[in-house]
Amino acid sequence: MLDHLYINAAYIVAAAFFIFGLKLLGKPATARKGNLFSAVGMLIAIIATLLSNQILDWNWILLGVAIGIVIGVAASRLIAMTAMPEMVAVFNGLGGGASLLVGWVALFGTVNLFVAITVVLSILIGGMTFSGSAIAWGKLSETITSRALVFSGQRFVNSAILIALITCAVMFVLEPAHNSPYLYAVIGLACLLGIMAVIPIGGADMPVVISLLNSYSGLAACAAGFAINNVILIVAGSLVGAAGFILTNVMCKAMNRSLPNVLFSGFGAAKAATEVDGEVHPISAEDATLILEAASSVAFVPGYGMAVAQAQHVLCELGELLESNGTEVSYAIHPVAGRMPGHMNVLLAEANVSYDQLIEMDDINPRLDSIDVAVVIGANDVVNPASRTDENSPIYGMPIINVDQAKTVFVLKRTMASGFAGIDNPLFFGSNTRMLFGDAKTSISSMISEFKT
Fold first, then answer.
1. What is the C-alpha separation between 49 and 246, in angstroms, rounded?
2. I need a surface site. Which of 142, 285, 375, 413 has the fewest CB within 10 A?
3. CA–CA separation, 22 vs 42, rounded Å?
4. b/e sequence 148-168, b meaning 16+ C-beta within 10 Å
5. Which of 83, 190, 98 lies closest to 142 in space, CA to CA?
6. Range with the lowest mean pLDDT among 47-61, 191-205, 325-339?
7. Which residues are catalytic?
8. pLDDT tens, 152-161?
9. Residue 300 belongs to what H/E stretch?
């Protein structure tokens, strides 16, 4: 058994690794090192905890470690990059559920007023995170509809749930016990509130929801740390909670929306975006290649369709061919492209695209009118000009990558289907837009073949 002093010293070292790792995660070039530093910090914290005198039964611990290793290895090997958003939602939910259980277990020890308050907070936030993440997973995987689900009187129902939850929480704090009926009521109501909080949020807002639920999982862990008096859990939970809130704020600014608007806009009457009529101008891979060969500047704009097609590697190859031809190549990244924060950055980094070529929305937009060709690969809502022109559109006011201002626009899509927000895109009918239909990976591979001949 480790002495309490050594355990706390190990926790301090682990916390330092967490903070330094988080700092490195702030830049794409150092993100992998940041992840490694954070993992080492967590390993130190786990080993110190397992060697402390608070551990009762090693058999259950070793079983849990074995199960976790199997699940972790299987997840890293089998889950495709397209399913990363769903997996993040699952991880958020598991974090919330774990905090709920840790808070519950704390009730089997000595319970004073402070412990009772922290327990109810960990259970409340953890329950909301668990159920809310389950709904987010369903929307992201399209197991349930991705559109906002609203019904008459939804505000009053949610208000009633919240009032009942607060009442039960107060009653539990006054008489805390691990088998209290008020405890069961808090758990049930917290899970119900998590469901009701996420179902009225549409698919276009899922990146914000993912980062917010990530923050909730951190806050739940922090509360659980106070409940069991574990320093490293408090520190780690605080870091995750703060980072999640900062990222949520960044996501909201990228969409020109406030957080209350994202969370509660589904309660009002849904707007119907104006239907778009016009003529589509298709193009073949051969003709697209000829235009790209003559271009002096090309900007690629990736979206979720690129992830579905797993086209990031062939896109990188095409970019390298264009560069060898003297073309200036860049990759325009919208903060909420894809279905989780940083989705496109992760995919392009996997394909070894240079970090220097990844250009953020605010930096690329002033240059787009001088770009010869903007190539949109599976993006939809983040390049939709309706956000600037259609006040009835649910994405009106959201900053987009203004690809319609480029001299020529190629849009790589399978069909004319709408994006995750479920609205038409006037870009597809623009006079300077050419639609290259088909699987993005196949289309880009065809252009590569034409380029090499």
1. 29
2. 142
3. 13
4. bbbeeebeeebeebeebbeeb
5. 83
6. 47-61
7. 381
8. 888 889 899 9
9. strand 297-302
